[in-house]
Amino acid sequence: MGKEASSVVPDFVAFLNASPTAFHAVDESKRLLRDAGYEQVSEREDWNLEAGKKYFFTRNHSTIVAFAVGKKYVAGNGFHIVGAHTDSPCLKLKPVTKVSKGGCLQVGVQTYGGGLWHTWFDRDLTIAGRVMIREENDDSASYSHRLVRLEEPIMRIPTLAIHLDRGVNDGFKVNTQTHLIPVLATSITAEMNKPAAENGPEDVGIVGKPKHHPLLLQMLANQIGCAPGEICDFELQACDTQPSVVAGALKEFVFSGRLDNLCMSFCSLKALIDATSSESSLDDETGVRMVALFDHEEVGSNSAQGAGSPAMFDALSRITSCFGSDPNLIQKAIQRSFLVSADMAHALHPNYMEKHEENHQPKMHGGLVIKHNANQRYATNAVTSFVFREIAQKHDLPIQARFRSAQ
């Protein structure tokens, strides 16, 4: 690991540890951008942008778009964009989480994305995400969004003992409906430590049954600093409490979850910040430098804040219209733009060499990977890959190729 690379690694690991969910990743990104002089704008308001200035906006608190307008930018000029995503496969809490079986309190979860679900067994788990809070103000009430993360491990998905499943080593297929239910506590201990306040009226589910264990709500309320009855709703997920670390015998690896795609989220964000850090950074820039970190890539990108939404086009249109009134300029701008979709590539696994075609085996320390697919699973073509390689060569960055088969 070179000196320049090693200098950024602590910041990257800190970003990983600050981002257990897409909401937290966006919150941390906002902090980094503000520290770098970026101003937040809202899609609900008019934009009064200036050439030479730096801005960002968010959608749903889980997607963020940051951009820097060149001092020589005029409407119709192109955008230089790097796109990545903030979400990762995980176990998300169901709308009704209360499960009680076999003398245990459990938390109902559902799978999100294409995860390796067997890896979630026997881990020290906690929960994180966002919570909607009701706050009483005299005769009225207001509602706010709060990020929450319980630091200590509070639940676990235990593996069945081999004595009860002698054939497990011959092949284990996870039943995501029955096997992946974390254990929160035993019923008897929970009853002995029952919170003084039971669930509020907002916690009544179908046919009058409570939706969540009072114990779970109490822990969330304690972390946020509110009463359990003030919690109106939430979007939470299970998280591994083991921190991301630099590891390996020679300290060359980052052991962490969520590398897909917090790695590219961090790298693209840092690149934008570093490229706009000095007073003169944008003096000769004729275009707009942009980074877009989208939510919901793992499930198809088709949400209101996913890459398949109008979010990107809306941003390009609004920026262009701030500097020119001709509606045709946005089409010219798009044709003059260049976008890199930055995601993780799977390096060659020494235990599964047969999984990569002989001529396309991305290796660690081999450099950036350009992904190809004849069936257009990737947008790479001869022109875009050539431009990418030329830029990399100019900056002495090694490049390797990978193709995705038709399967």
UniProtKB/TrEMBL annotation:
Drop me one GO molecular function for this one.
Answer: metal ion binding
Q: Which UniProt keywords apply?
A: Aminopeptidase, Hydrolase, Metal-binding, Metalloprotease, Protease, Zinc
> Would you name any one GO CC term?
cytoplasm
Describe the family membership recorded for this protein in Swiss-Prot or TrEMBL: Belongs to the peptidase M18 family.
Q: Name one GO biological process term.
A: proteolysis
Q: What is this protein called?
A: Aspartyl aminopeptidase
Q: Where are the transmembrane segments?
A: none
**Cofactor annotation:** Zn(2+)
What is an example of a Pfam family matching this protein?
Answer: Peptidase_M18
